[in-house]
């Protein structure tokens, strides 16, 4: 009887580990854009992912922001990845992305590709048109 209970305990534990692949991927860390102009710090915010600009090669203000009161703030420290929630696809999150280059916020996706690459896509028209780039892990 004890052997049967022990076997069942391990079977349940193994099933639980296999049932959570989307949460196993770790996007937390610092990521660089391919052009080398900026680095973004991604971190957990509750059960979601968020990200802030951690470094800019050429520091500047948020001059393109649609909110005129924010155009004088430095971009370093600005949250550009907001409330990314895990999707059903392993290593993928969906949420909002702020693009400081045009001052707009888009629906977007973050998709881990291995441990050191991450694709970030911003979408318009309900996800019909998406544009993205692949970031590399710095640390």
Summarize the structure.
With 139 residues, this protein is of the alpha+beta class. The protein contains two helices and eight strands; from the N terminus they run H-H-E-E-E-E-E-E-E-E. The model is unreliable at 1-24 (pLDDT under 50).
Total DSSP E strands: 8
Query: For this structure, what is the CATH class?
Result: Mainly Beta
Strand percentage = over 45%
Shape: globular
Number of helices: 2
Q: What CATH architecture would you give?
A: Beta Barrel
Secondary-structure element order, as H and E?
Answer: HHEEEEEEEE
Radius of gyration: 19 Å
| Fraction of residues in H or I helices | 10-25%
CATH topology: Lipocalin
> Distance between termini?
49 Å
Low-confidence stretches: 1-24
